[in-house]
Automatic annotation (TrEMBL):
It comes from the Bacteria. It comes from Streptomyces boetiae. GO terms for molecular function: ATP binding. Pfam families: ABC_tran (PF00005), TOBE_2 (PF08402). Keywords: ATP-binding, Cell membrane, Membrane, Nucleotide-binding, Translocase, Transport. Residues 10-252 form the ABC transporter domain. This is ABC transporter ATP-binding protein.
Amino acid sequence: MTATEPRRPLAVEDLRKGFADRGNTVNAVDGVSFEIKEGELYTLLGPSGCGKTSTLRSVAGLERPDGGRVVIDGTLVAGVAEGTFVPPNRRDIGMVFQSYGIWPHMTVFDNAAFPLQVLRRKPPKQEIRERVESALAVVQLAGYEGRMATQLSGGQQQRLALARALVRRPKLLLLDEPLSNLDAKLRGAMRAELASLQQQLGITTLYVTHDQAEALGMSSRIAVMSAGRIVQEGTPRDIYQRPATRFVADFVGTTNFLEGTVVSAAPAGDSGPGTRIGTALGELVGTAAPGVKTGDQVLLAVRPEAVRLHLTEPAAAPNVVPGELEQVMFTGECLDCHVRVGDHVWITRQEPRLAAGPGDKAWLELPADALSIVPSA
């Protein structure tokens, strides 16, 4: 019998999972802990091999952890110390795989009904029909019940996989790279559709992706993973605008970096700009990550869209560095400007109406509240 705990949609505590590799053990998941609140879409984001899918599979019961605990809706479903392991079919979850897992020989209705048909206590036929029709209506597949699954488009198959996961009305929905097999335009449309549907249903969701745009656009909170560990957790805005490490700043979006030394740190508890950094381009002021102190070797990180480009030197503006335009690319929405600043080329994104070209002198203004200071290691 599983232990009952205070009810929470999902709690993962010190989760560990290793795999054998040529006589060695690789720690795919190395002490991962997080909780998901009711109705959240919580995303595990990271590059291939960082441990995000192994974490999700451990939550689903498709992998048996080597250490730690998984609690779903107040019930311990995996606890190594307790000797508890609940199989996937007895966990109150729905799951959408990267490949969708659609049965090609079944109709849309039969695919969606499959999780109910295989229950030990199968609902009455009328209830199955009502629940399937309701799930298909939610994902905009009403009227497709009799069509063979192979006759659906890629986006429709993705929605069918989602309907099949929802038909059991699970406490927790697990999504493993569900949009990766779609083309870029359809992926963007489905991203908005899936986020809207999750909010409409209010279903607690654990989402796994390597796509930063998906994570930033859809998530309530994001956990960035590297080498089997969570290296930063926060809202999409926090992750993007206040990266805690070089890895996070470099992996999530495009970032300009500049090395420096802390001349004076902001007062303790002050989260605003005020830390002064000595650099090869002069002294600059920015916003430091927690723990940065005077004398530390650090990196200044600033996003391309935060940099203000001037074609004449601005008067009395702080954090201004001179440079020269090397490349200007018109993309329709903006100008991608590559600016030579000392030994580095900085990328900025400016208004498309800016009349600038290669060889022009430029001054880059780096707003202190958009200039993040992170440890160099």
